[in-house]
Amino acid sequence: MAALTAKKIFTYEDIDSLPEGTFEIIDGERRDMTPTGFEHGSIEGVFCELLRKHYGEKGFVAVGEVGILITKRPFRLRAADVVYISKSRVPFRPKGMLETAPDLIVEIISESNTASEIAEKVNDYLSIGVGMIIIVDPQTEAVTIHQVGRKDALRYGFDEEFEMLEGVKVKLKKLI
Q1: What is this structure's pTM?
Q2: Structure-model confidence comparison of residues 20 and 62, the more confident one
Q3: Residue 2 placed within a domain
Q4: What is the rounded distance in angstroms from the CA atom of residue 133 to the CA atom of residue 18?
Q5: CATH code of 105's domain
Q6: How far apart are CA 138 and CA 141, in angstroms?
């Protein structure tokens, strides 16, 4: 007979001592994430390069499942693919998990993601005041942009130009 093991419930007090790995914490429970593929990583790189080129002097860019605090109680920690946060929000390069809402988050949809998972993540980001969330779906070659204070999302194809941040226009078909 197999022994029952208690599931570890994480709290905000654990934020600086979380275990290694790729996961999110949703209401105290760890949700492991599947490693991404090459295309996913390549798209992350495109956005990272664009943000550093156009906004590197004005803020900070990070990629690779950056931890973002959503709520302390219940403890909710999301992992974002690409994050930009302006120096006006955080004057010094952040360390550890972000506890201030970024200006921009880019999420690339993986084949293992469900529509409800992505919608829940977007709602979490909007709830903490993230200014813009760009959802990139390589399977359908679509980009969906959610903005704080806007009820409707904007949708573009990879061959259509959209404005990422003020003054930076992107046509993904040309970049990937």
Answers
A1: 0.92
A2: 62
A3: no
A4: 26
A5: 3.90.1570.10
A6: 5
